[in-house]
Give the backbone structure.
Amino acid sequence: MAVMSVVVFMLMGAMPGDPIDLMISGNPHLTPADVVRLKELYGIGRPWPIRWWDWVGQLVQGQLGYSRLFAREVGWIVLPALGHTALLAAAAMLMALGIGLPLGIIAGAKPGSLWDRAIAALSYLMLSLPTFWLGLMLIALFSVWLDWLPASGSTDLLSPHEGGLADRLRHLLLPAATLGVGGAGQYIRHMRAAMIAQSQEPYLRTARAKGCSPWRVIVTHLVRNALLPVVTIAALEAGALMSGALVTETVFAWPGLGRLSYEAIMGNDYNLALSALLLATLLTVLASALADLAYGLLDPRIKSS
């Protein structure tokens, strides 16, 4: 995280444009004295290592700084966006796993069969659909033509007075489906490959020789070991989703972390962009750590010290 903060801070400092110049262009009443005071306040003009060290000092004290774009403390902007992204990521992951794992198991249980070929073709189709195109097509079908679901936006998750559970689910379905389709195709391919790779292992022959039924061999032995590589993919996918699905959040005007990071970068809002990007990094690291713990639960031979 420390190394990543240096990299992000350095890249943000190398971006063209000056946030104070943007403020001047938006407010012609600023005087030259105001410009000097603001540049001193934001540390513009000082070397970026000094500005990074000052930022770390504020971070240790629990201060994320002040957002120039939203005129609020960064924490009050990032937390709601994180909640929306977490809800979207959880729904997309559940949809992708709920579709991808069963179809991957069916395809891997009998490779070369008609079911395997049909599911393989479906997975290639899912992986080939561009996210932005799929999102627009879902909006055209379910929002414009059928008028079943809202095309964009979301109610405030932190406000109990704005909409209920049904309204939140209606806003969530289309963006979650857009993200879930590509993830489902990925899980189908990985689960099928892992099933086929594990099907030749000696422990399966031993299980069959002991009289285990084909269903028990597949569910108890084959699937459990085939899930190990899929867990790694799921952890990386969860980290990417929690980092903010920028394209999907933009298409559906979803107020999540990815869209917030994009707005902060385009607006040269250093404090907000740094906090959002480092939070995304932290979530990715945590997802990888949870995957390591899941290995031990799936395979007793893997022990963590």
In short: The first helix runs from residue 2 to 14. Residues 108 and 192 are 4 Å apart (CA to CA). The domain at 82-298 is CATH 1.10.3720.10 (MetI-like fold).
